[in-house]
Amino acid sequence: MPYRHTLLFLLATLTTINASAWSRMGTAAVMTEAGLPCFKIASEEEHSRGPVSLKMLTISTPGPNGWKDVWTVMFPNASFGDPSYRLPNKGCVRYGKAPEGAESSDAAPLVAGKVYGVSFLGRPPSASDPTSRYSADFCLLTAPAGGFQVIQLKNSKNTCAPEEKPR
Length: 167
Known about the structure:
- Residues about 5-20 have low confidence and may be disordered.
- The chain has helices at about 5-15, 45-50, and strands at about 25-35, 35-40, 55-65, 65-75, 95, 105, 115-125, 130-140, 150-155.
- Strands 1, 2, 3, 4, 5, 6, 7, 8 and 9 form a nine-stranded mixed sheet that branches.
- By secondary structure, the protein is mainly beta.
- About 10% of the residues lie in helices and about 40% in strands.
- It has one domain.
């Protein structure tokens, strides 16, 4: 009987834990390709967990009322609940250029000096891996030859500083 209160407290605590606490956020990568940002799953993620099957890609920017989507891609899959689409080896999705067979919204014009976020919704090969989202923040600088230079932001920075290393 002395353990009854402890057991009830433990059960009450466990039932209030948010299920999302069990999921893991992975890392996306952003680089410059032909003067535009290009998006993929970070190499470290795929090396340690294997190739990710992708459902969706969203590019958004912060605004006064939260984040606003500026471009969305739905990758070609037989079922949204069971993704099978994978980027080609060493491939990335260039802004405004959806892969063949994918559906996308119209891409809004990008603005230099503005912060953006990329988010992939996907699934790693192992069903026991709780990762379902891969994200990164980035900003754009005007490139001397035209187009943009991408700066991937680290440590939750929310400003575009020229001293960051372009990619």
